[in-house]
Amino acid sequence: MVEISPRLSMMASLVDxxxxxxxxxxTDHGYLPVFCVQQxxxxxxxxxxxxxxxxxxxxxxxxxxGLLDRIELRLxxxxxxxxxxxxxxxxxxxxxxxxxxxxxxxxxxxxxxxxGQSFVISPHTNxxxxxxxxxxxxxxxxxxxxxxxxxxxxxxxxxxxxxxxxEISKVDAVVGCSTILPPYYYDNLVRxxxxxxxxxxxxxxxxxxxxxxxxDVIRKVESL
Length: 224
Ligand SMILES: C[S@@+](CC[C@H](N)C(=O)[O-])C[C@H]1O[C@@H](n2cnc3c(N)ncnc32)[C@H](O)[C@@H]1O
Known about the structure:
There is one protein chain. The protein has 224 residues and is an alpha/beta fold. The chain has two domains: 6-166, Rossmann fold; 184-223, no CATH class. It has helices at 6-13, 31-39, 52-64, 97-109, 127-136, 170-175, 183-202, 208-223; strands at 19-25, 42-49, 71-75, 89-95, 118-123, 139-149, 152-161. Residues 8, 25-28, 49-51, 54, 77-78, 93-95, 99, 103 line the site of S-adenosylmethionine.
């Protein structure tokens, strides 16, 4: 059995399987699809990456675990190498929030996502932007999870594409609204908000809207 990090383990646990086919976009080492096939989280998988180096790494690992017959490798950007609905679950993990939104936007523009397709997403930056993008672009957020791994806090988001655009408030985009997350997730948000408020107070120019949002974030967390 392959050993994976707590972060990847959390992502695997968010797949409400067994999935028919899991697509892992930006697979790099390929550990997530290997783990998911080994654990019966999915029956088969597609491991894709935009770069040849990571895909070669994934192929080596998939071969080492004897799973080349169940995990297909694809060299492609984002979801461009996938048919809409080919995977019932897709993971996009370990990338910045901007890149994740760009990948999803490109797939939507190409009509490359089918209604009912589920996603597990883990942005390493710009969580607020990702939540907003998902809500406004037809992805229904079902739940979120967080874990601590090697001194970092990671977020996982489960969503399904239904094509319905939704509004999300500025505070909910920062704090999340589908799930109560572990206390350390919120402690980190409040710590960052307080630090930013102190920075703004010390500076010469203050942004009233940003100050109000940061105060709302702290109030919302305190009310949970
Ligand atoms: C930091 S690694 C994350 C690997 C793995 N998903 C994880 O969470 O451990 C990011 C990977 O995404 C790939 N990548 C970056 N942009 C991409 C894109 N537009 N489409 C597919 N893969 C991409 C990179 O080549 C790299 O292998």
